[in-house]
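Sanity check record (used in CI):
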Amino acid sequence: MLVAPVDPWSWFGPGRALGLDKHGGTSSLLFQSWFHSSGVLQSGPPQSGFFSPIDGVMLPAGTFSNRVAFITGGGTGLGRAMTTTLSQLGAQCVIASRKLDVLQHTAEEISSQTGNKIHAVQCDVRDPQAVSRCVDQMESQTGLPDVIINNAAGNFVCPSERLSPNGWKSITDIVLNGTAFVTLELGKRLIQNQKGASFLAITTIYAESGSGFVAPSASAKAGVEALYKSLAAEWGRYGHRFNIIQPGPIRTKGAFSRMDPTGAFEKLMINRIPTGRLGKPSEIANLAAYMSSSYASWMSGAVIRFDGGEYVSMAGEFNELRRVTPDQWTVMEAMIRSTKGS
Ligand SMILES: NC(=O)c1ccc[n+]([C@@H]2O[C@H](COP(=O)([O-])OP(=O)(O)OC[C@H]3O[C@@H](n4cnc5c(N)ncnc54)[C@H](OP(=O)(O)O)[C@@H]3O)[C@@H](O)[C@H]2O)c1
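Expected output for 2,4-dienoyl-CoA reductase [(3E)-enoyl-CoA-producing], mitochondrial:
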């Protein structure tokens, strides 16, 4: 007879017991805090060894020769990594954000490695006039771009009951309005010039599910995805493709200092990622380069989740059972087999 708690999830709570009595055919067993005391949680997932990142550039040299790429937020973090990869592949890049000194420093560093020109343009994407001036400057320096990556964003964790209208506005202005201003300004000029282009937006895995504590970001990123899917349908006739990458956690100073200021959540994140590690900036840069290249000319309206499996891992109701050891499965199997009727 089964004497374990009726709710199977309570088996997994700290300090709860799982037991079988002798009528179940197994001697009485007590499992106190199974996985909390298990080596898996203490040492980090061993499977990360199966999924080692490769740092090198994936596409053939010269893939972006004679191409111009415009990357918002290209001075730091993932934007910087994407700029580096595109520049290595021959693109002339234009990077734009608010801090001109950061952009100039990045531009000099990357172009001294790749030998390809990188232009730094100051632009606050929240301001449509500033976006228009930025595109004017780009047109005169490089011409209109072939590749546009909307990567700039702002975010911070905050209980929604503490959120001020300003907090809401500052995030949604950068993420949704900023992406819309950049995309519409460039789109209109490209259409006028009968020039095709690839547009890529960097969103997040919770654009789909929503997420507590980042409601402005979740709402704005969902809006960006709706914009890009809409334009994928509408502007294919002008030679424009629109795609989306939803990254999972990839360590950057900008993201991690505002999303995990104490560092406490990193281990939790890693433990729920089936590939057992965070992503690397160079990995998303290779994906972004592929999606922006002519190798992907049939890809439009695509939403690529790039998260080591984190999203599905959080979604599946029974996924916590991966913490059960083979011995524990033997016990559970006996319990299930010994159950008669319903
Ligand atoms: N890293 C992750 O784990 C992760 C996960 C999911 C999604 N993402 C997404 O990946 C993208 C890059 O994030 P990241 O991790 O690389 O963080 P990051 O280094 O902080 O990048 C954000 C960039 O946006 C720029 N920016 C902010 N406000 C702006 C404004 N008003 N106008 C123009 N540019 C502005 C910043 O430059 P300035 O300060 O100079 O303006 C900065 O370069 C973001 O869209 C983020 O939502 C990241």
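The CA atoms of residues 65 and 296 lie 16 Å apart. If this sentence no longer matches the regenerated tokens, the check is flagged for review.
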